[in-house]
UniProtKB/TrEMBL annotation:
Transmembrane segments: none annotated. Coiled coil: none annotated. It comes from the Bacteria. Residues 101-112 have a biased composition (Basic residues). One of its GO terms (cellular component) is cytosol. Pfam families: MTS (PF05175), PrmC_N (PF17827). Keywords: Methyltransferase, Ribonucleoprotein, Ribosomal protein, S-adenosyl-L-methionine, Transferase. This is 50S ribosomal protein L3 N(5)-glutamine methyltransferase. It comes from Ramlibacter cellulosilyticus.
Length: 445
């Protein structure tokens, strides 16, 4: 497999569903970097790394999907009607003989309006309050009132999509929910829920921002948001769909919500300089819902992939995604406790293991507690699984094999646990402290 044999265009994915509704592995509860997995406002990934040494990764490779402009265009408020006064004299320009002084209503002066029909005319010594006419039953709105804005969410009234998104985002902020399972802020989460509910592509907010939503459409979107707030479950568990590098994946509570930085490295070709023409066998260890295994099979069409996890429930979800993308002939699912059932040898090992340290586990928000603890907890310093992996992996790696390992925000603990290990830290959208690469030579040295 060479550098020129990568195939991962999102618009040519097998059996891909309509892209309407992200987030592969786990993520530390304190997300780093301004990264979004959703294609709402996806930033452009930076390929390659300065630590590649003598191996030149070549020009940057395009990602799976064209990046979407991160800057959300402003939606200006409706211009106010100008009500300037005339220069000098009476602000309404009335002459000395004028009797209808509407502009002085706020002063509660007695107004005599001869043009009104009998019964509505204000007589001397009577006063006309500016809002008296609101109490008159049966009156139809006048033409001058037709432009007045309507309150969002009024039953039977149409509301623009962008107005509903802003309203729901404010509710998410007020409720204090936590993000990090595909989005990093309340606005993007609201966009996700509304566009997913309407069956619209998640990167087309601008195209549909002014669309007016019927009452039943608003109601269903609000119910989805209220469920998100009440249950504190990640949005991906409510929609049963997550996105990683523009690729849709099924997900439910049996597996962790996919959000691995390794997906970026598969998409932009950062790993390619460490691979060779002899690279044929790939292992995705701790596969979860199988998202990294699927992306690896898409990126490298001439390799076979083994996707392993200790959880049989997670492997059931992974099977759904393997079949969803038509990769049953190239991806083999294996239940294994670490490397116990995986003899190898492998040319490339991808691993997004449980790495959250005990102190962080005790402080996890409810959204992270909704995920399987087995996929998160990494022991006192987060390195329990990693220690066993680095101990057993050298015998499972080929001569030119490499390990790509994600450890979240645990670089300090990793370097303390393995002080003599020469790791190459790979650049991602969150910086160069989340994912590292180890060669077979470094592991055996």
């Amino acid at each position: 497999m060479g550098q020129g044999q990568r195939l991962l265009p999102a618009d040519q994915l097998p059996d891909q569903q309509h892209p309407r509704r992200d987030g592969g592995g786990q993520h530390h509860p304190e997300p780093r970097g301004d990264r979004l997995q959703l294609p709402v406002r996806q930033r452009e990934h930076r390929g390659g790394t300065a630590a590649a040494g003598a191996r030149d990764p070549g020009p940057p490779r395009p990602g799976l999907r064209a990046a979407v402009d991160r800057r959300r265009p402003a939606f200006p408020d409706h211009a106010r009607r100008a009500g300037g006064r005339r220069a000098g004299g009476d602000p309404a320009g009335h002459g000395a003989g004028d009797r209808a002084l509407h502009h002085r209503r706020h002063q509660r002066r007695a107004l005599h309006l001869p043009h009104l029909p009998a019964g509505d005319r204000v007589r001397p010594h009577q006063r006309q309050h500016p809002q008296d006419r609101r109490a008159r039953a049966g009156r139809r709105p006048r033409a001058a009132e037709g432009h007045l804005p309507r309150r969002a969410g009024t039953p039977g009234r149409a509301v623009k999509l962008i107005a509903l998104v802003e309203e729901l985002a404010a509710q998410l902020e007020a409720a204090g929910v936590s993000f990090g399972h595909g989005t990093t802020n309340a606005f993007d989460e609201a966009v996700w829920l509304v566009l997913w509910h309407l069956g619209l592509p998640l990167d087309e907010l601008d195209l549909h921002a002014e669309r007016e939503l019927r009452h039943e459409e608003q109601l269903a979107a609000r119910e989805l948001l209220h469920k998100r707030i009440a249950t504190r479950k990640p949005a991906a568990y409510l929609t049963r769909e997550a996105w990683l590098q523009g690729v849709p994946f099924y997900v439910d509570e049996r597996s962790i919500v996919p959000r691995s930085f390794i997906a970026e490295l598969l998409a932009d070709g950062t790993i390619d300089p460490w691979l060779s023409e002899r690279t044929r066998r790939v292992l995705d260890l701790c596969t979860g819902n199988g998202s990294l295994a699927v992306l690896a099979a898409m990126a490298y069409p001439d390799v076979s992939v083994e996707a392993a996890d200790i959880s049989p429930e997670a492997l059931e979800v992974a099977r759904i995604n393997v079949e969803k993308h038509g990769l049953q002939q190239r991806i083999r699912l294996v239940q294994s406790d670490g490397l116990a059932a995986l003899p190898g040898p492998y040319d490339l090992v991808l691993c997004n293991p449980p790495y959250v340290n005990a102190r962080s586990m005790a402080q996890l928000p409810e959204e992270y507690r909704a995920e399987p603890e087995l996929a998160l907890a990494g022991g006192a310093d987060g390195m329990d699984f990693v220690r066993a992996l680095l101990r057993d992996l050298p015998s499972r790696l080929g001569a030119d094999g490499v390990l790509v390992l994600e450890i979240g925000n645990e670089r300090e603990n990793f370097e303390a646990a393995f002080p003599g290990l020469e790791a190459v830290w790979l650049e991602t959208s969150a910086g160069a402290e989340q994912v590292l690469l180890l060669t077979a030579e470094a592991l055996r040295g």
